[in-house]
Amino acid sequence: MMDKDRVIGSAKVVKGKIKEALGKAVGDVKLESEGKADKFEGKVQNAVGGIKDVIKEK
């Protein structure tokens, strides 16, 4: 079973992509920046979950 951090991280990446695209579309630099930050945070959390999964398998 996947670690919950991987699931939550993946969801944050998707949310970030949507916010970034919406920010670009409407010219909202703050929203675009928030989207980029959410994507980065999600990728980090996903990586942490991946490490936990590897540890659990051993």
From TrEMBL:
InterPro entries: CsbD, YjbJ_sf. Residues 5-56 form the CsbD-like domain. It comes from the Bacteria. It holds the Pfam family CsbD. Belongs to the UPF0337 (CsbD) family. This is CsbD-like protein. It comes from Mesorhizobium tianshanense. The lineage of its organism: Bacteria, Pseudomonadati, Pseudomonadota, Alphaproteobacteria, Hyphomicrobiales.
